[in-house]
Amino acid sequence: MLSNIAQGFERGTDAEFARFESMAKGSCGELRAQAIVALDQDYWAMETFEEITDKCRTLSAGISNLISYLRTSESARSGS
User: Cβ(14)–Cβ(70) under 8 Å?
Assistant: First the structure.
């Protein structure tokens, strides 16, 4: 996720940043899926699973808000 965010930021446009933020959001979903596997395989306790998935949901919501902002600001500047 961090690498997607950094890479998008360095692209220099809001549209590209938003595109890479979408990839980071997808990575949050992947991590939640892997957390389920870890829980099912008894690698993690329920407490750890809940902590990780709660943080992923919070991060995913923040990324969604940033994507919305970036798309809105890009549209405002382009007159769309």
Answer: yes
pLDDT in tens, 48-80: 999 999 999 999 999 999 999 999 987 767 665
Quote the pTM value: 0.82
Residues 45-58 as b/e (b if ≥16 CB within 10 A, e otherwise) read: eeeebeebbeebee
Q: Which residues fall within 8 angstroms of residue 31, CB to CB, at 6 or more apart?
A: 1, 52, 56
**Which H/E stretch holds residue 79?**
none
- Per domain, the residue ranges of the chain are 29-72
